[in-house]
Amino acid sequence: MNEDQRAIYVDEFLPQPPEKVWRALTEPEQIARWLMPNDFRLEVGHKFTFRGFPIPAAGFGGTGHSEVLDFEPEKMLRIAWRAAP
Q1: In the chain, N or C: fewer CB atoms in 10 Å?
Q2: What is the tens place of the pLDDT at every residue in 17-64?
Q3: CA–CA separation, 68 vs 43, rounded Å?
């Protein structure tokens, strides 16, 4: 695999059923509970934003611009993320 040096790859085992983990990763209300409010839709090409509190020391202005790149239900979710300063 040709890995992008700017990418973060996470491969982790979670002891919950796949459908529960999948909901946490793909339902906007669930994503907001553990990350930030968002306008996520599980649709390749959908551009969405995360909205949170700015953290200037980390270079985070409060908005994350994202896009759904690919997915396999209950197996894989690939998104692009760029934080606005």
Answers
A1: N
A2: 999 999 999 999 999 998 999 999 999 999 999 999 999 988 889 999
A3: 6
Q: Is 35 exposed, middle or buried (0-12, 13-18, 19+ CB in 10 A)?
A: middle
Q: Is the pTM of this model over 0.85?
A: no
Q: Which residue type occupies 22?
A: W
Cα 31 → chain centroid: 8
Give 1-6 contacts, CB < 8 A, sequence gap 24+. Answer: none
End-to-end CA distance of the chain: give it in Å, rounded.
31
Sign of the C-alpha dihedral, residues 56, 62, 64, 65?
negative
Sign of CA dihedral 54, 56, 61, 63: negative
The answer to whether the CB of 17 falls within 8 A of the CB of 31 is: no
